[in-house]
Amino acid sequence: MKTFALTLAATLVLGVANAQAPPAAQGQPAQQEVKVVTTKLGGNVYGIDGQGGRAAALIGPDGIFLVDSQFARVSDKIVAALKELSPSPIKFLVNTHVHGDHTGGNENFANLGATILGRPALRAQLLNPRPGPGNGAVPPVAPPTALPVVLFDAPTTVYLDGETVHMIPLPAAHTDGDTAVKFDQADVLMTGDVFRSQGFPAAAVTNGGSFLGTIEALTQMIAIAGPNTKVVPGHGPVVDKAALVFHRDMAVTVRDRVAKLLREGKSADDILASKPTAEFEEKVGGPPAFIPQFVNGLITELSAQKR
Ligand SMILES: [Zn+2]
Questions:
Q1: Distance 101 CA to ligand 1 centre (A)
Q2: How far does residue 193's CA lie from ligand 1's centre (Å)?
Q3: In the chain, what are the domains?
Q4: pLDDT of residue 133
Q5: Whole-model pTM?
C-alpha cells in the first residue's frame, strides 16, 4: 500500500512536471534558447547554425543569397543575424533538399521578398509530402508561398555580389531532389545532407533517396571540389575535400563488400553480422542507427539491381 502511494505520488509529480516543463524538456528547444550563429566560411559566404540543418548566406550589395532556411521558428533570428552582416534584402533562397529542417523557413523568407529556387522533385514533395526519415511522420502540405518558383534540373549559375554561385542537381541520393551549391570565389561547397561529416550515408528512401545514388553524388561533388574547398555538410563540422573523398571511398568499400557477400549467396542477416562497416565506425562516428540502415539499404538496392 505504501509502495502504491509512493508510486502514485511520483507519477503525479512527474505528470505535473511534464505539463509545466518548458518545450526544451520535451525535445522541442524553446525559441528563446536557440542561438543563431554566423561563421565566415570564405569570401562573403557565411555558415548559419541555429536550429535545423546548416544554412549559409552569400552577402553583398546585390542582395543576400541563402542556402536552406532551417525551421520556421528561427527565421526571425536568422534575419537578425544577417542584418548584423549586411543591410541588403534576402533576394534568393535555394533548398538543398525537401526536409523540414532545411525548408521550414521558406514561407517566412518568401514573405520578405526572397525568390525560392529548387528542383521540381523537391517542389513536388512539398506539395505531396511523403513520410520522412526517423519517426516516419508525414509533414504538412507546404503553403504556396513556401514553394520554389524557379525550378532547375540542370546545373544553373547565379552571378551576385561578385560571386559565382553554381547550383548542381545531384542524382537521387539523400532524397530525389538534392542540390549541391558551390560558391566559386569563396571556394565553399554546400553538400546538403548527401554528405554528413559525422555518420554513415543516410539516404531517406521514403523521400526517393538512394544509397548507391549517394555514392554517385559524392563522386560528383568531389569532382567540383578543389584542394582548399571548404566542404560544408548539412550536419556536422566543416571539412575539406580529403574528408569527402574518404567518405566516398568508405562507402564504395562497404558497397563492394556487401555486393560480394550477396554474390556468395549470403543472407541479409549474415551480411549484417559480418559487420562490413566495422573498420570505419570509429572514424565515421555519428548515430549508430545509421549503420544497419546503410547496410540494409545497400542490400536492398544491390539485390534489386541483380533482378
Ligand atoms: Zn535531410
A1: 7
A2: 5
A3: 33-242 (3.60.15.10)
A4: 83
A5: 0.88
